[in-house]
Amino acid sequence: MEVKNDLVMMVTLHSVNQYLNVKLTIVTVVDSNKCLQLLMLEDCYIQGRLVRYIQLPPKEVDTELLQDAARKENVPKAKVSA
User: Fold this and answer.
1) Rounded to whole angstroms, what are the CA distances from 14 to 2, 11, 65, 68?
2) Strand ranges (DSSP E) for the chain?
C-alpha cells in the first residue's frame, strides 16, 4: 500500500468502509528511515483520501464474490406504490 506522502507499507487489509477508509493490521514500513514513528505500528486506520493505491495479490481476490456483489448492486429496485 502507498499513501500520498510516498510512504510504502506492507500490510494486511482488515476492512474497508463505504468511504474507502481502510483498517490495516500487520503493518510494516518498507523504508524504515522515512517515518521512524511508524515502526512500532501493529495496526492502523487510514482515511481513503490519503491512499494512493493498494495492490492486492491476484490469488487473494475472490472474483466470484465481487461479481455477485456487483450483480446484487445493479438489480433494479421495485417501485413502491402508495
Assistant:
1) 16, 9, 17, 21
2) 2-3, 9-16, 22-29, 43-46, 51-53
Residue 44 lies in a domain: yes
Q: How confident is the model at residue 58 (pLDDT cuts 50, 70, 90)?
A: confident
Q: CB-hemisphere CA count at 13 Å for 48?
A: 7
On whether residue 80 sits in a domain, the answer given is no
Q: Are 62 and 68 in contact (CB under 8 A)?
A: no
CA–CA separation, 32 and 41 (whole Å): 12
The answer to whether the pTM exceeds 0.70 is no
Q: Cα-flanking dihedrals φ and ψ of residue 5, to 5°?
A: -95, 20
Are 27 and 7 within 8 A, CB to CB? no
Of 11, 8, 36, 10, residue with least CA distance to 23: 11
- Work out how many domains the chain is built from and give that number: 1
